[in-house]
Specification:
- Two copies of one chain form a homodimer.
- Chain A starts with a helix and ends in a 13-residue tail after the last helix.
- Chain A has two domains: 69 residues, Multidrug-efflux Transporter Regulator, Chain: A, Domain 2, CATH 1.10.1660; 41 residues.
- In chain A, strands 1-2 form a two-stranded antiparallel sheet.
- Helices cover 66% and strands 3% of the residues of chain A.
- The longest helix of chain A is centred in the C-terminal third of the chain and has 43 residues.
- Chain A has 126 residues and is mainly alpha-helical.
- At the A-B interface, helix 2 of A face helix 2 of B.
- The first copy, chain A, binds a DNA duplex (30 and 30 nucleotides) through helix 3.
Chain lengths: 126, 126
Amino acid sequence: MKEKELRRSLAVLPIGTVMKLTNLTARQIRYYETQELIKPERSDGNRRLYSLNDVDRLLEIKDYLDEGLNMAGIREIFMQKQLDQEHRKEQQSKTLTDDDVREILHDEILRAGGLQGMSPTSPKLR
Amino acid sequence: MKEKELRRSLAVLPIGTVMKLTNLTARQIRYYETQELIKPERSDGNRRLYSLNDVDRLLEIKDYLDEGLNMAGIREIFMQKQLDQEHRKEQQSKTLTDDDVREILHDEILRAGGLQGMSPTSPKLR
DNA sequence: GTTTCATGTCATGTTTTCTAACATATAACT
DNA sequence: AGTTATATGTTAGAAAACATGACATGAAAC
């Protein structure tokens, strides 16, 4: 699903569209930017360009505000989330290398022991 | 997958973005509109607004042009596709009513035969 | 060598967005 | 009560993007 991620993170929406999609005013959207809650791209002509992910994030911000959080609180939550996500990715890459280890082990067994009864293409292995 | 369809058909992109995404000039994009190959929405201020589906369609148009088709040909192909799709939908709804028929039959069996050995909440039934 | 088609280019007007500044309501604090 | 901070409204002026319409043009078709 890499193409989907790309689509969601492509900065293609002008602020007017984002206003409609989020029901926020331009003032609010820009203010959240000064508070470093979002960081839209810029066009050649310096216009802000938002991605679908940005829209989601703005909707999140709205929710948190409704719950009474302030800018600092929301900023903190977002940083938390980011850390969490990085952690997950790290875990995933670790898992992957575990699999790699298994594969390497498998190869070594094959080479060391020769084929004693097991077919090299045995379904149990990979 | 209804939300996804909605997302893909939401008119949110200004022509400048579409130009970058398709590598077409504004002139070309507007011309294809006069040829009724696309029909973007309009904002309150009369700006054209395109959906992701529109972008896909424009990329298709590009391909067909590269293959030597002209506007009329492409228009024809699109109409063809639309018919085809409508046909598919009709077929699907027919299939659905077949299922309905089965369900009705099932209900009737229950009512007619009474509960001879089958529990009314038997997992096999619905 | 005209026509037609698809596109380029230019002019002019309108809409959208930008930044920056000043204003204000609400909540928090002393 | 008076002050302060926060989040947002409002306004002004400039720049960018977009709309429409007209005229221009290269390539293909006839």
